[in-house]
Specification:
177 residues, 9 strands, three-stranded mixed sheet
């Protein structure tokens, strides 16, 4: 209001603008998504709100990471070329290996039920259709790790927050103990 009074006193005219204006196409979404394949983004947000982590889990999966894993499972199950039974869980194998700028680096990949070994620790998320598998050697380094997901255009993807790490690199994909 004060700016309008000064402008009128000086003889300026102006059209009021909306500072919070967003293009109409964006009004139905609260977030922008980085991939054109993320057409089901609002559903992923709903699942994110519904997921509650397991306090007893080896790896604490945050709601945004679980939503992304559920989305990946949905894409796998909908793929006509996939030979995987849609009722089978998406198996996420996590571990560590030597390397990276801080000494150890995180390994995260999809696995199959046949590749699960007797010594592996498994966290089951039956409602979501996800299993998280950690090998015995990596368990010491990954216990209590928080897995998060960011859909930022720069630096987005899965993020690791490890309470056991004494050092970590800037990219967040390696750590030291």
């Amino acid at each position: 209001m004060a700016i309008a009074v000064v402008h009128e006193a000086l003889g300026f005219s102006f059209a009021p603008i909306s500072i919070n204006h967003r293009p109409a196409a964006l009004n139905s979404y609260s977030k922008l998504y980085s991939s054109p394949t993320d057409v089901d983004a609002p559903a992923a947000v709903e699942e994110e709100d519904a997921f509650e982590g397991d306090d007893d889990a080896i790896i604490q999966i945050k709601p945004s990471a679980m939503a992304r894993l559920v989305e990946l499972k949905s894409k796998r199950d909908a793929d006509p070329k996939s030979t995987v039974d849609p009722s089978s869980p998406l198996i996420l194998r996590m571990g560590v290996r030597n390397g990276g700028c801080s000494g150890l680096s995180y390994v995260m990949d999809f696995s199959t039920a046949d590749e699960i070994e007797e010594e592996d620790e498994i966290d089951n998320y039956e409602k979501e259709g996800i299993q998280c598998v950690v090998d015995a050697k990596s368990l010491l380094y990954l216990y209590g790790l928080e897995l998060d997901f960011s859909d930022e255009l720069i630096g987005g993807g899965f993020k690791f927050f490890n309470p056991n790490a004494e050092d970590s690199c800037g990219c967040g994909s390696s750590f030291g103990v």
